[in-house]
Amino acid sequence: MIGGPVSDVRHLGNAMEQLTAAADAGAEAWPKAMGEKSTLFNGGSVDLELLDEISNDARVALDGLAAAEEELNAVADSRPILGTRFADARDSAQAELAPLSEKAKTYGPLLDVMPKVMGGEGKRTYLVAILNPAEMLYSGGTAQTFTSMTYDDGKLTWEDTIDFRSAPWLVK
C-alpha cells in the first residue's frame, strides 16, 4: 500500500535530480559556445577542441533529459487514497520537459557529425549553389551561381564565386 506512492516520490525526485544535472551541463556549455568571451568561432575558424568540450557538456545534458523522461514515465497514473496527485505532478513536469526533449532528439545527433563537417577528420569541401529570385522557378529553378567552401581542421575558406559572367565556358 505504501510502496507505490514511495516509488512515485522517488521517481519524481530522481527526475528532478536528472533535470538539475542537465541544466548544470547546459549552463556549463552555454558560455563556452555563446558567451562574450567564447572563442568557439574566431576569425573564420572553429576551435574544434572547444567544440568537443561543448559537445561533451551537451551530451551530459541530453542524457539527463532522457533519464528524467524515463523517471517521469515510471510514475503511476493513480494510487489508492492519494489518487492522481503524483500523476498530475508528473504530467506538469512532462509538459515542461517535452519541448526540450523534442529539440534534443532533433539536434542531438549533430554533436557526433559537427567535427567531421568542420574538417576535424580531414579536409571537407562543399559546393554552395546560389539562387536569385529570377532563378527560383516553381519547378525549383536552376542555380547559375556557385562557390565552394572548405573546412580544414576547423578553418573555413571560400573559393571565388562562379557565375555566367566569370565562367563564360558554361554558356555556349
Features:
elongated, alpha+beta, single chain, 5 strands, 4 helices, about 170 residues, two-stranded antiparallel ribbon, 3-stranded antiparallel sheet, about 50% helix
Principal-axis shape: elongated
What structural category characterises the helix and strand content? alpha+beta
Q: Report the major sheet.
A: 3 strands, antiparallel
Separation of the first and last Cα atoms: 85 Å
Q: Taking strands numbered 1, 2, ... along the chain, how are they ordered across the largest sheet?
A: 3-4-5
Name the beta content range. 5-15%
Helices and strands, in order, run as HEEHHHEEE
Which consecutive residue ranges, at least 5 long each, have pLDDT under 50? Answer: none
**pLDDT averaged over residues:** 85
How many β-strand runs?
Answer: 5
Query: What is the quaternary state of this protein?
Result: single chain
The portion of residues assigned to helices is 40-55%
Compute the CA-based radius of gyration: 25 Å
**Number of DSSP helical runs:** 4
Task: Characterise this structure.
The mean pLDDT is 85. Helix 1 runs antiparallel to helix 2, helix 2 (48-73) runs antiparallel to helix 3 (85-107) and helix 2 (48-73) packs antiparallel against helix 4 (110-117). The chain has helices at residues 3-34, 48-73, 85-107, 110-117, and strands spanning 41-42, 45-46, 124-130, 145-152, 155-158. By secondary structure, the chain is α+β, with helices and mostly antiparallel strands.
